[in-house]
Specification:
Number of domains: 2
Helix content: 25-40%
Shape: globular
Low-confidence stretches: none
Strand order of the largest sheet: 1-2-4-3
Oligomer: single chain
Order of helices and strands: EEHEEHEEEEEEEEEHEH
Number of strands: 14
Strand content: 35-45%
Largest sheet: 4 strands, antiparallel
Length: 192
């Protein structure tokens, strides 16, 4: 399942995705404009837009790795938290509080194995928090995005590891067909 949905016209590319805190400023640098729940870009910037979404989400309308993985993450220290925001890992929302006294909602494909998430802070400066030592899994992350996140793991995490891989058969079949077509082209050139 793609995290990023793309539609194009002769002049525009519209992209829908889950919210990430970095997205608005980076999209605006490419001339992006928020239109409802989608970002709109000039079609001439399609390659730059693709690169942006592949970097942030590891996905662009199903592009990227055909393989997805689950990642097990251990929170370091006493806690991991953000003021007036959700918590994110590898382009995915992990947990979200909406106020100091609210319950916390887990992101899609997130499972808590040890510890937990809570809301905290003050009424005006509430936080989404994970207690130190919390262990959680995030499922269905594009493999390349997971590997990049683990390679540059933020200090709030003690460790992160890939624990399983699921194959996206449709993406693999598409890749196979493209490779077979290229092999046929090469054979035609060699035998000409």
């Amino acid at each position: 399942m793609s995290q990023v949905t793309v539609t194009t016209t002769d002049q525009k590319v519209k992209v829908s995705s889950a919210y990430l805190p970095e997205l608005p400023s980076m999209a605006k640098k490419l001339g992006g404009r928020l239109d409802g729940s989608s970002w709109g870009f000039d079609i001439r910037d399609l390659d730059r837009v693709r690169d942006l979404y592949l970097t942030l989400y590891g996905d662009f309308n199903g592009e990227g790795s055909g393989e997805t993985v689950s990642v097990r993450v251990v929170v370091a220290g006493s806690e991991w938290g953000e003021y007036r925001s959700s918590l994110f890992f590898a382009g995915r929302m992990v947990a979200q509080a909406r106020g100091r006294d609210s319950s916390v909602i887990l992101g899609d494909g997130v499972v808590v194995l040890l510890g937990g998430f809570r809301s905290g802070g003050s009424v005006k400066n509430w936080r989404t928090e994970a207690t130190g030592g919390t262990v959680f899994e995030v499922r269905d992350i594009p493999k390349g995005k997971a590997e990049a996140e683990i390679a540059d793991l933020p200090g709030v995490f003690e460790s992160a590891e890939i624990i399983g891989a699921e194959m996206n058969k449709d993406a693999l079949l598409t890749e196979r067909n493209e490779l077979m077509a290229r092999v046929a082209e090469i054979d035609a050139i060699l035998h000409a």
